[in-house]
């Protein structure tokens, strides 16, 4: 499969930030861990920049976004909604994007957040996936 010149995106996790990995050859984005950085916008800015460039380069390849956040603060929640809005805009112009919201069955809040995000979106498909 052609990579369209995009390098993978790799941001290692820290105590306050999630691991973020985008494999451009499989078109799969993973956000995993906890998200409560001191400056949420600053932390996620490179992700949004990378994705904007990426969505310009891909054609018909389906994209999968796997989000497995054990904990995230309110500012991270806003960033996630911005991410979902960006993904939805790309779906509305013909991109194939699926989001998997992975949650531990014992984490009721994670399920509720996933459901809340789903309610706010019209075109973007979010699957709630119990792990």
UniProtKB/TrEMBL annotation:
Domain SiaC family regulatory phosphoprotein stretches: 11-130
Keywords: Lipoprotein
Matches recorded under InterPro entries: SiaC
Protein's UniProt name: Lipoprotein
Phylogenetic lineage: Bacteria, Pseudomonadati, Thermodesulfobacteriota, Desulfobacteria, Desulfobacterales
């Amino acid at each position: 499969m052609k990579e369209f010149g995009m390098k993978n995106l790799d941001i290692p996790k820290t105590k306050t930030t999630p691991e973020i990995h985008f494999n451009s050859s499989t078109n799969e984005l993973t956000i995993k861990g906890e998200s409560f950085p001191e400056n949420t916008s600053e932390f996620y800015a490179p992700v949004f920049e990378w994705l904007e460039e990426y969505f310009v380069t891909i054609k018909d390849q389906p994209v999968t976004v796997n989000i497995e956040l054990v904990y995230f603060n309110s500012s991270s929640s806003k960033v996630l909604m911005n991410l979902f809005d960006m993904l939805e805009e790309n779906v509305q112009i013909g991109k194939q994007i699926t989001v998997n919201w992975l949650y531990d069955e014992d984490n009721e809040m994670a399920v509720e957040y996933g459901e809340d995000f789903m309610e706010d979106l019209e075109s973007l498909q979010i699957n709630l996936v119990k792990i």
